[in-house]
Predict the structure.
Amino acid sequence: MRASRVAASYGARVAVAESGRFGGTCVNVGCIPKKLFSYAAHYREDFAVAKSFGWTLGEPKFDWRTLVVNKDREIARLNGVYESALEKAGARILRARATVVDPHTVEAGGRSYSARHILIATGSWPQIPDIPGRELAVTSNEAFFLERLPRRALVVGAGYIALEFASIFNGLGVQTTLAYRGPRLLRGFDADLGERIAEEMRKKGVDIRLQTNPAKLERGIRVTYGVGATQEVDLVLFATGRKPNTAGLGLERAGVKLAADGAVVVDEYSKSSADSIHAIGDVTNRLNLTPVATAEGMALAKTLFRNEPTPVDHVNVPTAVFSDPNIATVGLSEEAARKRHGQVDVYKAAFRALKLTLGGHEERTFMKLVIDAASQRVVGAHMIGPDAGEIIQGVAIAVKIGATKAQFDATIGIHPTAAEEFVTMREKLQ
């Protein structure tokens, strides 16, 4: 979307081949519907908190079909907005799946089109492990369109999607199990985040089973784990990774090098091994986040059509996991910081948010700063708690420009807020 619109604004003749709905994973089966579902799941706790502030409520009732229908209406609106934006930019829309014939030719809808440049932005697709009964499971793609809400659900995985859907199901009243083959959640994130989010989700009722992996599914649905234990559920959702969506595109015959997982191998300017073919977004498996793909698209348009070679900086990109509670992070984990910088200073804070104090709710907000000891630059900021993404977005600016701990300390906080804790942490732990 962004690459096409910006390239057209620079005077390029642009055609976009799309056989499905506009907006990609994020709009249709990713960030947008996921965040809407996450909002819905939070209301159960919000109703309970409201009582502690003197509000008298009737018995809350949730209707799954209402949520799905309203979500579908909003996504359809966004699909139209994106298609209209492309048309207004002057892009030609080809309503067909495209394949690459050679470095300068694409076939779509039975016709051939020639182009000076070809851009691959086909995203990724969720994967289900090859176990007996795998056809009985769903992925996040299908979870947004379930006919009915299950009574019991098993979510398999420990990354963004797994934690988000486990929180969504649990918040909507589903008896939810989260199973993961490893020793802690959120591999690749700061270890404190993985350990503490498990504690918080367990408090809220999610049954988290670590070092546990389904080995077989049977109709019913009966789950047999690798350790031999069994469990009866109504839905199994695998959130165990996504694969770049390159199968059958004809890229190899055009001289495009693919990685073992099917990702298009590109340089810092998103150029593949074929000079005329570029790739951006999840299909390159660099940093699979929508704003990153958007930045890559804009940078590519500048590189190709404005004579401004523009690489994308993938360092210090903030990100959030919309679990309950939310998680957000920017920069290095403590482990990565120690490997890169050697000596680091670590500051942590854990507290109950003011909003929760009147009702005795046990959720605790957690914040952490990781400092390069030599330069005193803040190289990592991590948070678990309400609106973590909103807070870390601002902190990310400071981390990106290389702010020091002293500069954080010199910033006066807004009181009373959770965010102020990032500028009031004074007790160095190590």
The chain has a mean pLDDT of 97.
